[in-house]
Known about the structure:
Largest sheet: 7 strands, mixed
Number of helices: 3
Oligomer: single chain
Structural class: alpha+beta
Radius of gyration: 13 Å
Mean pLDDT: 96
Strand content: over 45%
Helix content: 10-25%
Number of domains: 1
Amino acid sequence: MKIVNVVAAIIKDNDKIFATQRGYGDLKGGWEFPGGKVEPHETLQEALKREIKEELDVEIEVDDFVAKIEYDYPNFHLSMNCFFARIINGKLKLKEHSNAKWLTSDELDSVDWLPADLTIIDLIKEKL
């Protein structure tokens, strides 16, 4: 099975977390934490900063590591390193997503998370 290595940003602003809705691909319409694939010779943090700049047009500071999620989708295995992050420059602009929301801890269950992202919601609630 193909292995896809990605990073995800759990972007915080005070007591809220930024969630994005996929605008493309097989998982279109599902909610996720923004991020993407790690390129060769990139650190996880470098990949996350690059991906967020590409997808959301903002610069982030990568904060604490949250968890590594391993999840089997039907056509590939996802290995996702998740980090808390915060915006340090720029204004959010959706370039690849169809929608986005700032969610409080109590609202995290209000969107239809993609299966891999769903596995970390309880952990995020504990850390908020």
